[in-house]
Amino acid sequence: MHWATKYPACGGKKQSPIDIQRRNVKFNPDMLQLDLSGYDAQKGNFRMSNNGHTGKCCHDLWDFSFLHVVHYNSDKYNSFSEAKDKPDGLADGHFENTYYSDFISNLEKIKYAEYGDLFPLVLGFDDKNTESYALVHLNHPMDLNAFTVCMHVLLRVGGVHTVISYSSSGRDNELMVSISEDTNIREVGLWIGNEFVNMPHSLKTQDWTNYCITWSSHSGGVDLWINGMVGEQRHLQSSHLISQGGRFILGKDQDGFLGISNTDAFVGKMTDVNVWDYVLTTAEIRDQFTCERNSTVVGNVLSWGSSKFSMYGGVQLDNQYRCS
Questions:
Q1: Which of 36, 141, 191, 214 has the smallest count of CB within 10 Å of its CB?
Q2: Which member of 2, 53, 161, 201 is catalytic?
Q3: Which long-range contacts (CB under 8 A, 24 or more apart) does 47-53 make?
Q4: Is 107 helix (H, G, I), strand (E, B) or coil?
Q5: What does the pLDDT read at residue 17?
Q6: Each residue of 240-264: b (16+ CB within 10 Å) or e?
Q7: Rounded to an integer, what is the distance from CA 47 to the centroid of its chain?
Q8: Which Pfam families does the annotation name (predicted)?
Q9: Is the dihedral of CA 255, 261, 267, 273 positive or negative?
Q10: pLDDT for residue 173
């Protein structure tokens, strides 16, 4: 229901639709008068975030996300009651306040919220641009002597698509997985510690595809699984330890520590991206291909749907899940 339908007074153009439940509000006579301090320009660093429905700006003295301030025109009226029904009596964010300039100018940088505990979760990457990627907040540090990486992808165009990229302070490509789909080339590329191995395959599909890659530092053995079927084993970086302290992103290659490149950017959709700090069994890998969510083990390093991540640029939450 539109507010003004039942409450005509709410049909103005300078109002905020806050439903105050007056019957549930109890006056506490012991509360002191609200005393706003530090209500001028604040200095220092502010942390801005997006919780899905509002921009949040936190400071040592202020947390702007939970304070709704309505001003009245004190130059013209003696009280809030006198000003409340006047066209120029109240101001609710529809005025120029230079103290908020930095806050407002940075809202674009938190265009998307931090997400976690979502299912089904599908990310859509429509464009190749440097702003379009997802930053993953891992469940525990990338201190790995073995791993399994699984994902479901639906590619929209040919070329090389970077699915995951982990860059540490010492190596641009500490761990990276890319998928190449072209007329004559179909392969999965794996970088570990700045060394590369390619794994060709012959699968042709325009549907969702499940990829799993396992690696063990002990032997350096690398196995590629596609839709539950294993290919020829390769070897890469035996005795290597994947170092912690870097950043893990989806959809882009990291050109140096904290750098983002649109070269080989992912274009399409991805879901069920999981990372474990051990090699899954054959049965567990083949379970990744199924739609039985209750029987499928999820990653303990990156756990799809529960690990939090932040989306930037043109990344979209999509509703086309692979099992729907």
A1: 36
A2: 53
A3: 48/103, 48/106, 48/107, 48/109, 48/110, 49/110, 49/113, 49/114, 50/110, 50/111, 50/112, 50/113, 50/114, 51/113, 51/114, 52/113, 52/115
A4: helix
A5: 54
A6: bebbeebbbbbbbbbbeeeebebeb
A7: 17
A8: Carb_anhydrase, Pentaxin
A9: positive
A10: 92
Q: How confident is the model at residue 213, as a pLDDT?
A: 98
The whole-angstrom separation of Cα 207 and Cα 159 is 16
What pLDDT does 118 receive?
A: 66
**Which residues face 250 on adjacent strands?**
134, 164
Total number of residues shown for the chain: 324
Residue 130's alpha-carbon distances to 127, 312, 314, 318, in angstroms, are 9, 9, 10, 20
pLDDT of residue 309: 87
53 is catalytic: yes
Q: CA 165 to CA 255: how far, in whole Å?
A: 10
- Measuring CA to CA, which residue among 281, 268, 275 is closest to residue 315? 268
The domains found in the chain, sorted by start residue, are 30-110 (no CATH), 115-318 (2.60.120.200)
Decide if 142 contacts 301 (C-beta within 8 A): yes
Q: Which residues contact 13 (CB under 8 A, 6 or more apart)?
A: none
